[in-house]
Give the backbone structure.
Amino acid sequence: LQTLRGVDLIVAVTFVTEVGDASRFESPRQLMGYLGRVPGERSTGETVRRGGITKAGNGRVRHMLVESAWTYRHPPKVGKAKLYRLEQASPKVREIAWKAQSRLTARYRMLSARGKRTTVVCTAIA
């Protein structure tokens, strides 16, 4: 977890202690539902209204993820502190971390270019 941008010791420990074994979730969508990171919906008949995140679930982990997402405002790069963690990780983990950083940074830029508020963008990419 600590090879990902924005995730340091406190965030990683909070995630592991609050969520436990992440493999118990069949899909990432289930994990996000557990954390309350899915859009709320108010529907009647044929009318579908989607709102902000549901905020049901674990608030501590959700808060940590959103705060970590603020680091994706900056272009993708590996800082000195992260370089040490990445050197200890396997090549496969390094590749996953770099792809995630590149994808989330691009998504941040795309949503910002559409005129979304910064707080909404960070919540969306968390």
Q: What stands out?
A: The longest strand covers residues 47-53. The chain has one domain: 9-125. The CA atoms of residues 5 and 104 lie 10 Å apart.
